[in-house]
Amino acid sequence: MTGRRALRTTVAPLTRRETLALERALHAELIAATERTETLSDALELKAPTALLHLADDPVHTQPAGADEPSSVPDLAPIPANVDSSPPPLPRTAALPSIRTRRAGWEAAASRPRPRPRSRSAEGKRHGARAATALAFAVALTAIPALSAAGLPTTHVETVAAPAATLTTPQDFAMGEASSAQVARDGYSVSAPKKPALAASLPTVARTADTFTNNPDSAVQWPFPVGVPISDGFGPRESPGGIGSTNHKGVDFTPGQGSPISAIADGVVRLVQRSDQGGLGVYVVIDHVIDGQPVSSWYGHMLTGSPLVEEGQAVKVGQQIGSVGNTGVSTGAHTHLEVHVNNTPVDPYAFISARN
Fold first, then answer.
1. CA separation, residue 285 to residues 26, 203, 305 (Å)
2. pLDDT tens digits for 215-262?
3. Where do the DSSP E strands lie in 150-306?
4. Residue 334 scores a pLDDT above 90
5. How far apart are CA 273 and CA 285, in angstroms?
6. Please, how many CA atoms are within 13 Å of residue 120, restricted to the half-sphere of its CB?
7. Domain parsing of the chain, residue ranges
8. Which of 109, 114, 101 is closest to 7 using CA atoms?
9. Which residues pair with 122 in a beta bridge?
10. For the chain, which has fewer Cβ within 10 Å, the N-terminal or C-terminal residue?
């Protein structure tokens, strides 16, 4: 009774149902062990004397004293089939301590505190707190560039440490108040782009009169008896109005619309274009022989209906052949004069100046 009370004290953490089930199992095991012990004891008491008598009467197992041990162990008589050859179970008094020891182990294992499962709500709270912290950090990083872009005066210094190493020198990021650059406008001046130079002999002031002086006794003369303005020279230029060529093959004289145009030398009329078909518009071409070389003079943009010569007609130097107009590709009334030597355009201003 004392031992049972001590065991009940140790199993206090078990429930009543668990305690009753454990006691019933132990009691059943104790009864079964007792029955096996009694059965084996009765069988041994009945069968053992008969077996011993058979061994005593067997001449094979009888030998005189002092005789040598046989070289081989003789065969024993077989055990009857109705005799249990398994080892006898422990008596009741010897089995009780073993049962009590196992029972104490079961009770100790059952009395151990079981780990409490984690609460899902607590785990969710932890994840929620981590997510809120990450969101607040992202908002802070976004707010810093936004304040700088808004033009607010901010000074931000931040040191970022790498997770696996420590930076020896902190990284600083500073922004000051935005300011606009001042431009000294008074230090600049506006000027028109320089026009390509005319021939080396062309006067600097080309848009005024007296750009040339005509010698009426020369075999080669200017297309006008007196000096007139020149609006454009020979060679590369900027396209006038975006419609003219950038490689000017002649010189443009601007004495005014309707002014008479004269032949620069004696010659024969090769071509008279009386209708305006673009390009040079209404124009006349005269062939000459000057200094023993074939030379042709072209007079473009004439006034419609003004040509006074016919193709194949011989003309004299200074003879009027038409009037200044604005036909063809033109931005104003002028005469476009070209001089070709051996079918190659040359500078008319330089050519006439050298021979007038």
1. 141, 27, 16
2. 999 999 999 999 999 988 888 887 666 666 777 899 999 999 999 999
3. 230-232, 235-236, 247-248, 251-253, 260-262, 267-273, 282-290, 293-302
4. yes
5. 9
6. 0
7. 2-57+78-109, 230-353
8. 101
9. none
10. N
Contact 348, 336 (CB under 8 A): no
Give me 2's structure tokens: 């004392």
- Please give the structure tokens belonging to residue 217: 């006794």
pTM beyond 0.85, yes or no? no
Q: Region of 73 please: left (phi>0), alpha (psi -120 to 50) or beta.
A: beta
CA distance 55 to 277: 156
Task: Report the C-alpha gap between 3 and 98 in whole angstroms.
Answer: 14
Q: Which residue, 47, 54, 49, 44, is CA-closest to 80?
A: 47
Rounded CA-CA distance 190/193 in Å is 9
Per-residue model confidence as pLDDT tens digits over 28-50:
878 887 777 777 666 665 554 55
Alpha-carbon gap, residue 354 to 343, rounded angstroms: 19
Joined tokens for residue 170: 């902190």
User: Domain 230-353: what homologous superfamily?
Assistant: Glucose Permease (Domain IIA) (2.70.70.10)
Torsion of CA 181, 184, 190, 195, to 10 degrees: -70
